[in-house]
Amino acid sequence: MKLLVKGGRVIDPASGRDAVGDVAMADGRIVEALSGKPDRMIDAKGLVVAPGLIDLAARLREPGYEYKATLESEMNAAVAGGVTSLACPPDTDPPLDEPGLVDMLRRRAKALARARVYPVGALTVRLEGRKLTEMAELAEAGCVAFSQADTAIENTEVLWRALQYAATFGFPVWLRAEDVWLAKGGVAHDGEVATRLGLAGIPAFAETVALATLLELVRATGARVHVCRLSSAAGVALLRRARHDGLPLTCDVAVHHVHLSDMDLGFFDPQCRLEPPLRHPRDRDALRAGLADGTIDCIVSDHTPVDEDRKHLPFAEAEPGATGLELLLPLALKWGVQANLTLAQTLARVTSAPARILGVDAGRIAPGAPADLVVFDPQAPFRVSAQTLKSQGKNTPFLGLELAGRVRATVVAGNVVYEA
Amino acid sequence: MLRNPQLNAKGELQHLLSVEGLPRELLVQILDTAESFAGVTERDIKKVPLLRGKSVFNLFFEGSTRTRTTFEIAAKRLSADVINLNVAVSSTSKGESLLDTVANLSAMQADIFVVRHGSSGAPYLIARHVKPHEHVINAGDGRHAHPTQGLLDLFTIRHYKKDFSRLTVAVVGDVLHSRVARSLIHGLTTLGAPEVRVIGPQTLIPAGAAALGVRVCHSMKEGLKDADVVVMLRLQNERMSGTLLPSAQEFNKHYGLTADKLALAKADAIVMHPGPMNRGVEIDSNVADGPHSVILPQVTFGIAVRMAVMSMVAGGG
To answer: What are phi and psi of B56, to 5 degrees?
Structure first.
């Protein structure tokens, strides 16, 4: 299969290329030029051609939560959002702690032939924080990293040993920084808004206490740790110093936390029930600054489809999470415009940077790279609505809002997997 | 989207969900209306026909005999039909969702839902889903709000002190978990009370409390000084010893209202408590039963205030 994307504004954040031109693809890879006529041509005149988005956190809900979403529905959502590679956290039911589950998930995903799926294995058995999983076996089955998803390891000895063991094999460990005890029972940022609404709070120091522990253990073990979903200004400051000290760290932020704060809870909007909680506008601003200066490497969707029944509940009882695969691109673009960045700089946070963390050869437009592309119109407006979202989860705080940035085509391995 | 959900397009009371966000004029109107009903409750025939033919559903997802009873009395004095549902032990224990329960009751032609729920914000969820002619009155949601209690506290203060513009009000105890404190504080700041203090150990004062417009004090000596009104909050049994407090005795020693501590307040100070009281913990008996106490009048005023609220949301037209 030979494919030619013609006449678009080609942006490759990895090399800094930003020029009108063609992208040729053959046999699933990008090539310098095609020999002979293409089998298919996409006219990208007036559109941006960029590497397909890479999302380090997208819950596909299989196995176990098929009533919330299915692999098929969420893979359709991914490519509709221009996401060509995604990592899925291990908090399925059962969790991804056995090679057989990982293997099945990868095969099911492959059969659907949409985005590439990279499972993140459980760091501990059943995510219980007690026994290590067979990480080497899981890696062989296709796990690219190990994580606890949203469940913290209470026991610091287990955390230390897990990092030691992972470091032995060079496996990356992706962790959220949240102290279990300080976060216990909390549903919102511990501050003025939670106090006014009478919601149990999670203080910002629940993040920094856990982060400080984690940083010391990274120092001790040399494990490659990726800090997931940073949420507080103090957390950003702590991480900035640690990176300055040269610790082997990377970090991401969820796209919701780039744009929203606890002020958006309004009158108990359950769509804003997220983990970690939306914090003070000052925290949001610090996250944006951290993202701009490179303290935070990339933006993730933290895609979490939740069924309506689990959201139509009082705030504290509502299931946390928001759908995000289809909003990652427009919301990243919105941030880039507000932060005065070039398109290439903005797109780096959802393409080349996460590719580096994932350790896969993707996220760039260059001969030899996988033919994973997104073709989009950065200006085209659309209204976020339950009808237009392909994800089975319609739960997002952005419902009803107008955003700019519409995907026109998504290419994975040289095949057009989405067109609009 | 962020229109105050308890007011209709004309700015009238559609639901009563929180004291926060009620304009001053509306607060005064509620208190004035309650004043007019206070007379009714003292007559031989204690009924007015304002809600005749209307149905009030008492929907208590969390047990409370007293609040439910005062709502029931208030509704009956307005000639409404009252249906008490102890949902805590019926439908929801069978797995029915909150909104399904409400939809079912709505199909039985309700006019007013009086809702108590353990989760902050639950009445907002219900108010978003009821029909336009149905009204929701929050009878206490989680730690968030207990607006009719806040209103009856305001009514009591106004009754004894006439004017809010010079008052110092001290709210003492477990502010962290108290919906009563939140509702009263919003009311006092709206009505222009110049000094509202909250008093308690750091463990019982919520984060960012000062943003509510109060002064945070950690000692009774500082907090009670020259107070006109002292509001004692109930300390739940399960919070008397553990991570928030070491013991009820130690709490009583530092934050319990004794005659000695009350002497720090103004000579004509009034003492209030939303009930039920823990005598010997947050308040000593000689204070609870003493000359400064207006705890029982609070209960009486509560009926008039609830009549006022119900007649204002559902009595028109």
So the answer is: -110, 120
Domain ranges (residues) in chain B: 24-145+301-314, 147-298
Q: Which residue of B has its CA nearest to A198?
A: B144
Is the model's pLDDT at A194 over the cut of 50?
yes
The pLDDT, as a whole number, for residue B65 is 86
d(CA A173, CA B38): 67
Q: How many domains does chain A have?
A: 1
Nearest to A53 by CA among A419, A407, A414, A416: A407
pLDDT tens digits along A315-369: 999 999 999 999 999 999 999 999 999 999 999 999 999 999 999 999 999 999 9
The pLDDT of residue B219 is: 97
Q: Please state, in angstroms and rounded to a whole number, the distance separating the CA atoms of residues B182 and B220.
A: 20
Residues of chain A with C-beta less than 8 angstroms from the C-beta of B117: 314
Any idea of the CA torsion for A113, A114, A116, A121, to the nearest 10 degrees?
A: -90
Task: Read off the amino acid at residue A212.
Answer: A
- Percent of chain A exceeding pLDDT 90 equals 100
Which B positions 93-132 lie with beta carbon below 8 A of chain A? Answer: 97-99, 117, 119-122, 124-125
pLDDT digits (tens, 9 = 90+) for B71-127: 999 999 999 999 998 776 665 566 678 888 889 888 888 999 999 999 999 999 999
Angle at the Cα of A188 (from A187 to A189), degrees rounded to 5?
Answer: 140
In degrees and rounded to multiples of 5, residue A313 shows phi and psi of -140, 165
Q: How many CB atoms lie within 10 A of CB A414?
A: 22
Q: How far is A318 from chain B (nearest CA, A)?
A: 11
CATH for the B147-298 domain, from 3.40.50.1370, 1.10.150.20, 3.40.50.720, 1.10.760.10: 3.40.50.1370
Task: Say how far apart CA A209 and CA A206 lie, in whole Å.
Answer: 6
- Structure confidence at residue B174 (pLDDT): 97
- CA A195 to chain centroid: 30
A302 is known as an active-site residue: yes
Under 8 Å between Cβ of A369 and A29:
yes
Q: How far apart are CA B40 and CA B33, in angstroms?
A: 11
Q: Is B230 helix (H, G, I), strand (E, B) or coil?
A: strand
Asked if the structure places residue A21 within a domain, the reply is no
- Per the structure, the complete domain to which residue A249 belongs is given by 51-364+379-404
Under 8 Å CB pairs connecting chains A and B tally to 77
Question: In this predicted model, what pLDDT tens digit does every residue of B248-291 receive, in sequence order?
Answer: 999 999 999 999 999 999 999 999 999 999 999 999 999 999 99
pTM: 0.95
Q: Does B196 touch chain A (CB under 8 A)?
A: no
Q: Residue A54 phi/psi, 5° resolution?
A: -120, 120
| Three-class DSSP category at B289 | coil
Please give the angle made by the CA atoms of A409, A413 and A416, to the nearest 5 degrees: 30
Instruction: Give the tokens for residue A107.
Output: 């095969």
| pLDDT band of B1, cuts 50, 70, 90 | very low
> What secondary structure letter does DSSP report for A93?
S
Phi, psi torsion values for A376, nearest 5 degrees = -145, 160
The ipTM of this complex is 0.93
Tell me the pLDDT tens digit for each residue of A230-244: 999 999 999 999 999
What distance in Å separates the CA atoms of residue B134 and residue A234, rounded to the nearest whole number? 46
Q: Which amino acid is at A179?
A: D
CATH of domain B24-145+301-314: 3.40.50.1370
| Identified catalytic residue from A55, A262, A297, A302 | A302
Neighbours of B45 (CB within 10 A): 7
Q: Does B121 contact A196 at a Cβ distance shorter than 8 Å?
A: no
Any residues with CB less than 8 A from the CB of B172 and at least 6 apart, and which?
Answer: B198, B199, B200, B220, B223, B224, B230, B231, B232, B233, B255, B257, B282
